[in-house]
Amino acid sequence: MRIAMATAVALALAGQAAPAVTAPRSTTDGIWRMDGYGTVLSIRDGTFQEYQTTTVSCLKGDSAQRTGPGTYTTPDGTVLTVRALGDRGSMRADSSVGDRNLRRMAELPDACTRPAPKGPLAAFDVFWQSFEENYPFFSAKGTDWHALRDRYRPEVHAQTTKDELYAVFSEMVKPLHDAHVAVQDGDRVFAQVRPGTVLPSRELDTKVKKFILAHGLKDARNLQDFAGGRITYADLPGGQGYLRISGFGGYTGDGAPYAAQLAELDRTLDTVLDQERTQQLKGLIIDLRINGGGSDALGIHIAERLTGAPYVAYSKRARNDPADPTRHTRPQAVYVTPAQGPRYTGPVAVLTGGSTVSAGESFTQALMDRPGRTVRIGQPTQGVFSDVMRRELPNGMSAWLPNEEFLTRSGRTFDGTGIPPHLTEPVFTKEEFDRNRDSAFDRAVNVLRKHGGTTS
After folding, report:
1. Given a cut of 90, is residue 256 above it in pLDDT?
2. From CA 233, how far away is CA 241, in angstroms rounded?
3. pLDDT computed for residue 455 by the predictor
């Protein structure tokens, strides 16, 4: 645009008629191909329609309706913001921390305009191809995905039942031990976690919370639950604070829109981190040991209450070549900027374990380069960070899989292994329960008291 305007001015000064300068199209209507994510979008007449594509398939995915200029809302309340300038655009979900880049297309791919193949073999091929083109971690997991196709595809035929196909798909993904990988058929879901760990559950959360109340918080003051019970705060003896976060969502009930969750989180943080308390706090324990994840954006929002200076939390990239798992979208930095509301910037001890999952892990990663003293205590996190792609299959089943990596400043990822602690302690083992002992909590109290959040 700058070159075009300079040419127009030069021609006018020379007495020649300047050519008309046409601004790039800003309309979001049209057909868009998303960089990475195997997705094509159709936006027309106020309707947003997703198409999930592979080299062998195109199936309809989520839909949304226009609710404002450039905004579309899905049936579950997720707000999508789409921006366009010419043939480039971007899309962001309100609960996400990154944009997804879009490129305008002339029309839908041919596969999206004709009926999709059906039957067990078609379901197998779409399932296998979805992982083949999007899953980034086969090499790291030591899994030969092509060998699994050669082994299991001959078992599938026109008369294969859903039960049989569900069993085949489950066996294929079992070696990945990836908590962001799942096979779904109606109400049944097959998923596996990293060996030696367990996924958070309501029962485990209740058991652990009762245990902590009887142990570390027995002498606490101002003990209070917030955000639908997902956040607990207490003042500890010695001037320390304890903040337990069991998830990054569900603050106002399941299914509530992100804006309501964010508003409830702000009300919670305004109370927990009020100015009088933050001026007196000598250290803060953040307990993420039973955390089922949720919205990465809510995690960043909490991190913004824990810093007095801006910094990069992490960078995010997605696999971007169906044939080459080493090619990715350009890494997109996610920033933490100091919040306008009350903040705490002193020493922090973060408690983690194998039941720290997904957004619980991205929040842990967002605190790694936090200005100030931050120490991690416990066990490695689960090792799953990506947003989850939910891919429809032609027979009504679906597959869940990750396609993103969250990078540290040095380019490292913690997928599979999880984020390690600085100080290793057992986390909710049978021996800990039997002896009524919480070694990680006790270590955090002592470290903050003696060293102010350093490990020396």
Report:
1. no
2. 7
3. 57
The encoded tokens of residue 440 equal: 């990680």
Half-sphere exposure for 145 (CA within 13 Å, toward CB)? 19
Q: In what order do the strands lie in the sheet with 423-424?
A: 221-226, 231-236, 240-245, 283-287, 348-352, 374-378, 423-424
Which residue matches tokens 């329609």?
A: 49
Q: Which residues have a Cβ under 8 Å from the Cβ of 441 and sit 6 or more positions away?
A: 212, 215, 216, 285, 287, 351
- E-only strand ranges, 21-167: 30-34, 39-44, 47-54, 57-68, 71-73, 79-85, 88-93, 100-105
* pLDDT tens by residue, 193-220: 999 999 999 999 999 999 999 988 999 9
Burial class (CB in 10 A: 0-12, 13-18, 19+), 430: exposed
The secondary structure element, H or E, covering residue 159 is none
Q: Taking Cα atoms as reference points, which of 94, 90, 36, 81 lies closest to residue 300?
A: 94
Sheet holding 332-336, edge to edge: 332-336, 311-318, 404-407
Output the pTM of the full model: 0.92
Taking a C-beta distance cutoff of 8 angstroms, is the pair 418, 194 a contact? yes
Question: Which residues lie below 8 Å from residue 66, measured CB to CB, with a gap of 6+?
Answer: 46, 47, 48, 72
Residue 251 to residue 230: CA distance in whole angstroms: 6
Tokens of 307: 């810093």
Positive or negative torsion for Cα 46, 254, 198, 437: positive
Report the half-sphere exposure of 230 (CA within 13 A, side-chain side): 24
Q: What is the mean pLDDT of residues 127-147?
A: 97
